[in-house]
Amino acid sequence: MTDFYQNGIITTLHNLDERPIEEMEAELVKFSKTRPMALILPSLYSELEGIALPNIIQELAAVPYLSQIIIGLDRSSQTEFQKAKTFFSKLPQHHRILWNDGPRLQALDQKLQALNLAPTELGKGRNVWYCMGYVLASKKAESVALHDCDILTYDRSLLARLIYPVANPQFNYEFCKGFYARVADGKINGRVSRLLVTPLLRALKRTLGDNEYIEFMDSFRYPLAGEFSFRRDVLNDIRIPSDWGLEIGVLSEMHRNYANNRLCQADIARFYDHKHQDLSLQNDQGGLSKMSIDITKALFRKLATQGHTFSTEMFRSIKATYFRIALDFIETYHNDALMNGLTLDIHSEEKAVEMFAQNIMKAGQSFLDNPMETPFIPSWNRVVSARPSVLDELYEAVELDHQEFMGL
Length: 408
Hints:
The chain is an alpha/beta fold and 408 residues long. It has helices spanning 21-32, 52-60, 78-88, 103-114, 124-138, 157-167, 191-208, 212-218, 246-257, 287-305, 312-339, 346-369, 380-386, 390-404, and strands at residues 11-13, 37-44, 66-74, 95-99, 143-146, 175-180, 183-184, 187-188, 228-231, 263-269.
């Protein structure tokens, strides 16, 4: 249970009374009659063989208010796609699988590549982008939630609390970001958010001065959460990164497109645990190391669009300021852990901070060396403008895949 304190410039919707899930779902069923709801699940095929996704599907099967579930399936052969159809057939709701590696969606992707409008990098961003396109193409939902498929602590109350703010017709929110306590197995997790994003935002504020965007980002309790919900109209002109900067990029787009009173964050789970990425101290092209570089570049790019000028000297100042703030945070988290009977390894925390500090410089140098880098996937408005039939083609490809492999 959390308190009711409002910090920052974004409305926080708390979990004050552990409201019964049945009561909230009954309201959502009423909302669904005028505001139908959908869920996007970006998934790797390997997650079907893990322990998290089978439980997620079992929980979702009991959800009464969803009109549609859209599964984006990456890294799967034809045989694996057929297995996925059987796996997801347990869902009683209308559902479709986007077989992203299948010949039909690959053919559509090639058509968009010819127009320089296709995602340039494989990964979650690309998967989510095509799923968002399918939401627009199918026209079955007005409110949409998205969450990951590796949540080990999942129960269906997470989805209810996530989608409620954009489904309730009495609210005017266009977007809701989920947050939760990253605590599991007696430890505080969420290293990238705790040890990179928050201290980096504070360092940017100290070096660049007061900035409404930095205050906006620092208002989110867990900016890297992969769980968010939105009204369907949000999807038309949002531009998202295809790399690990997805979550930061989505928040930046919300800041660009909407007033703060149209955005909120909601406490969606008491505890949350998922698949953990390796720190990758020796490989900045993988794990948390690559993630930290992508996230940092996403922040630098956004600030540059606001007129901030960066240089090697500026990045050195940001790195030094970050390093001192992050080390102070380690002591704060250590004391918080001890008070709650949890453990926190100071040595491993400092190793992570040292790596993140190095990667701030790497991200800064990459930003300076590649001024024309455009990591954002084009908005669906732009794609439709260039190829008016694209949503119909996407919808048809998914339906033909579904029909061809039905019952196999």
